[in-house]
Amino acid sequence: MPPQPPSSTEVVVIGGGVAGVSTAWYLDRLGVPVVLCEKGRIAGEQSSRNWGWIRKQGRDPAELPLIIQSLRFWAEIAAELPEDIGWTVGGVTYLVETDADAARYTAWLEHARAYQLDSRMLSVAETDALIPNLRAPHRGALHTPSDARAEPAKAVPAMARMLQASGVPVFESCAVRTIERAAGRVTGVVTEHGRIGCSTVVLAGGAWSRLMLEQQGFALPQLQVISSVQRTTAAPLIAETTVGSAAVSIRRRADGGYTLAKSGASRAELVPANLRHARPYLPVLQRDWRKLKFRLGKPFLDALLEKAWDGDTESPFERTRVLDPTPDHGLLDQVLASAKAAFPQLADVRSAERWAGAIDVLPDEIPVLGPVPGIDGLLVATGFSGHGFGIGPAAGYVTAQLAAGRTPAVDLGAFSAARFA
C-alpha cells in the first residue's frame, strides 16, 4: 500500500520536474512546510529528457536575470549533493553559418553586455582553436565560456532524494486530481490517495499544467511539442564546450558519449487545444513552420473523449503516469550523420539510446511564473518552452519566495500569467 500523504501542510507542489523539485528545495530552506506530489516518477518527463545545457547564451532578455542566478544555484547544488550530477563549466558555442546567424547573435550581444556577460563573437581561427578538427562550414561562432552542463537524468532525482533525506515528503505515483477552493481561495488538494489541506499550491506540472488550469477555470494557451534526442557510445573528447549548429547540437556526457539533437526540429501532436489556442502561435508558426511536423492521431481522439473529473474520480493524470512519446528515428539518423560529418572524433560512434520528450511551450517562448489571476493561493511555474532545465533552480527559488510571502529576488513582471488572461 502506498504511503499516505499528510492531512495538511502549508504548501503543496504539484509536479516532480526541475521546477517543482527546486521549489520544494528552496521552501525547505526557507523553513516552510511543503509536500511534493508527482503523478508518475521524479523527473520522468522533460526534466530528464532535455539536452542538459545550462546556458545564458541566446536566452530571451527577460530570462537573463534568472539564468545568471540559476548558474550560481546549480554550482551550489552540485557541491551539496552527495551524488555526481555531471556539473561542468565548459561553455556554450553557436556556430555562425549564415548572415542571419551573425545578425541575430550580434543583436543578442547587446543584451549580454547589459549584464556584463562574458559572451563574445569568435573569428574562424578562434572557433577552430576551440573546437579542433571541426569540419562544419562556419564563419565563426558566438561563445560564452562561463555556461555549463549537467546530466538531467541524474540531477533532479538526486535533489529529490536529498529533500526526502531532510524530511520533506516527496510522493511519486500520487496524482493530484483537483485543487480545492473556498471563497476564491485555495484550501487544499485532493490526491488519488487522499486530501491534503494547504493554503498555497504551486502547479509545476510541465506539459500537464494547462489541463489542471482549465479545470480551475483559467485558460492558458500552453501546448506541447515532441522533441527527439539520442546519446551515443563513448568517443574521444571533441571540446569541453557544447556546440550548436543548424544540423546538429552536441553535449559531452559524463559517460564519455555525446547527447545529440537538432534545434527546433519538433513534432506537434494535433489535439483540440491546438485549434483553440492557434491564434497566438501564428507568428511562431510563420517563423518555424519548416522545422515542425504535425501529426493527427490517437492523442486527438483521446482528448475528444476526455470527460470531466473531480476528486472522487480517476483523472487523466492517473491514466498516463509518464509521457513517453516515440522518438523520430528518421530525424535522429540524419542528426547522427550530420554529427559524424562535422566532428571526425565521432566517426565510429553508434546510437546507444533514443528518446523523445514533451516540451511545454507558450506563444512567447518564456515561462509563466507567479500567481494565477482570480485564484488566491495558486502559483504556477510552467511553459519553459524547452529551456527550463537551466533556469529551473532560480525559477523554483523565486516561486518559493512567493509561496513564503516574500518579495522575489527577480522582477517577474514579464512572466505573469495575466499576460494570457
By DSSP (H or I, 4+ residues per run), the number of helices equals 13
In which range does the helix fraction lie?
25-40%
In terms of structural class, how would the helical and strand content be classed?
Answer: alpha/beta
Shape: globular
Write down how many β-strands occur, each being a DSSP E stretch of 2 or more residues.
Answer: 21
Q: Which radius of gyration do the C-alpha atoms yield?
A: 21 Å
Number of structurally distinct domains = 1
Mean pLDDT metric: 93
Strand content: 15-25%
The H-level CATH homologous superfamily, spelled out, is FAD/NAD(P)-binding domain
Q: Could you tell me how far the N terminus lies from the C terminus, measured between alpha carbons in angstroms?
A: 41 Å
CATH class: Alpha Beta
Largest sheet: 10 strands, mixed
Uncertain stretches of 5 or more adjacent residues: none
Describe this structure in words.
The structure is a single chain. This protein is α/β, with parallel strands linked by helices. It has a single domain, classed as FAD/NAD(P)-binding domain (3-Layer(bba) Sandwich), CATH 3.50.50. 31% of the residues lie in helices and 23% in strands. It is built from 13 helices and 21 strands. Helix 1 (18-29) runs parallel beside helix 6 and helix 1 (18-29) packs across helix 13. The mean pLDDT is 93.
